[in-house]
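Study both lines:
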Amino acid sequence: MLNCFQQAHHAMLPQNTHDEASRQEFAKSLKSFIQNQLLPGLAPVYSNRVAKKFALQNGAPPKDRHEIRKGMVEDPYFKLYASINRISQELLWEATNVSIARQLPQLIDRAKQLSKTAACELRIPKEFTPPRYVSALDIHCMPGGYCSEVAADDVAAGALYDRGVYLYSMGYTGPNNDDMGRSVCNYLKRNKPDFKPRRILDMGCTVGHSTLPYKEYFPTAEIWGIDVGAPVVRYAHARAQAMGLDVNFAQMNAEQCDFEDASFDLVVSHILLHETSGKAMPKIFNECARLLRPGGLMIHADLPPFDLMDPFTQFILDNETWYNNEPFWGAMREMDQIELAEKAGFARSKVRFDNAPMAIMEFAAQTAGYDEQTAEEVSERDFTAGEFAPGGGWEVLIAEKPLANEDAA
């Protein structure tokens, strides 16, 4: 039922004709069909056919996700699943691009007008080189990626991402595509009720989906969203204004930010880390530690590390690496993020993983009549292979910067 949510309108969202809306709805429905009808068939195919065949050929069943893949890629059912899944991904972007191309001049003009009247800042450096791990490929098959510009003051990539993410998530991120930010804010509200950040940084914000909830939850805080793509931060800035929220945006690399030391109380990211690289991740953790004031929090929300799930679930999630232009997706989940945080200067005793229940799932449970505490419990489940957010929640890495009089060891 959750994917029945329609995307909420705002002034920067491209408007679809009837035919454009129909094509996009078909792409979303195809995603849902794959998720709910085709994907569940992979488990019995693996256990009843592939694992047995692999054991006969190799003397033992598959021991990890790599050996599971070796067996599964030869199976006709998996070939069908993987090919249709890739086609559906390309289709959703194509269906969305048509309406954006038709309206791009108007969208650019609208973004300029909204930004002119904004009380908050937009920084686009004259000379900026995005890292190649972002610019060298179309991440999750999005044409042109985050950084490509086809016109002066371009916002096309932002408009494409805004609509495309709604279709990709099948509505599971809510009407404003902001479930991750809302989920983390809910987590802070419950677990850190006295935490009142004055300045918040969202790294890898794209169009600010998850950035804006922080302004709602912490209205007096100064909020910054940064991303390496100029078109997405231009769009993010205008989108925030269209939604009545004063949030600052900048084109900036999370590996090396143009902010002073100890200038933020909270540094967050939402599904950023798996789109970086093995060399970039330690730099990002170091930058978080540099930017935080003593007692400040670093929170990275993503999907769980592989050591928290069984090999078959790992295999399902790792399909993003192989078939959706996400080269660092699997490798990131094998990195020891707690060790990275410790090396960056966070005390190991104050670094942990936790689960932030999906805000949209809690909302659905409350709508069904559960109280707030029960709704939180209902939304927390065991990991299920193929779910949009396995277990109904986002895995969050939380680290607290030591106070001046505390030992960082």
